[in-house]
């Protein structure tokens, strides 16, 4: 179903790393953003459209629309990056039926209650538990900010944050 070439969590959504590096490396022609707040804000949505490189289509769905479109055609046949703003939305989407084999945790900002997992990702205990739950369901969870960075597996982050 569909041709999702990468599923990613990145709080910045469509920005330099996704728009220029990952789309090029993955030959992506479409970015599907799933975020309730962004989908409800025409200005934010327009900014995402403008951030996309030439030839790459951006589509913004709320969670309900994303599931409906997934069930219709898996977001089509174009090489697609499926993008979530946060771990919780990615987990809810998976649990609702938007299936993905792997998920790249690219950027989660520092915030109260979050511990530093790597230089671009900070996770709360709940977010870490959600990622562990995805792994238990068979999803390959990894941390890979840019194509040039070293890929880090979830197990290494769990060891760092929980010992």
How would you describe this structure in keywords?
seven-stranded mixed beta sheet, two-stranded antiparallel sheet, Fructose Permease, 163 residues, alpha/beta, 23% strand
Protein architecture, described:
With 163 residues, this protein is of the alpha/beta class. It has a single domain, classed as Fructose Permease. The chain contains 7 helices and 9 strands; from the N terminus they run E-H-E-H-H-E-H-E-H-E-E-E-H-E-E-H. The strands form 2 sheets. A 7-stranded mixed β-sheet has the order 3-2-4-1-5-8-9, sandwiched between helices. A hairpin with an 8-residue loop joins strand 8 and strand 9. Helix 5 packs parallel to helix 6. It is globular, with a radius of gyration of 15 Å. The mean pLDDT is 95.
What is the level-2 CATH architecture name?
3-Layer(aba) Sandwich
Q: How would the global form be characterised? A: globular
In the CATH hierarchy, the third-tier topology is known as Fructose Permease
Question: How large is the radius of gyration?
Answer: 15 Å
CATH class: Alpha Beta
- Specify the helix fraction band: 40-55%
State the domain count. 1
Average pLDDT, rounded to a whole number, is 95
Q: What is the count of helical runs?
A: 7
Distance between the termini: 38 Å
Summarize the helix and strand pattern as letters.
EHEHHEHEHEEEHEEH
CATH superfamily: Phosphotransferase system, sorbose subfamily IIB component
SS class: alpha/beta
Uncertain segments are none
Strand arrangement across the biggest beta sheet: 3-2-4-1-5-8-9
Largest sheet: 7 strands, mixed
- Total count of strands: 9
Strand content: 15-25%
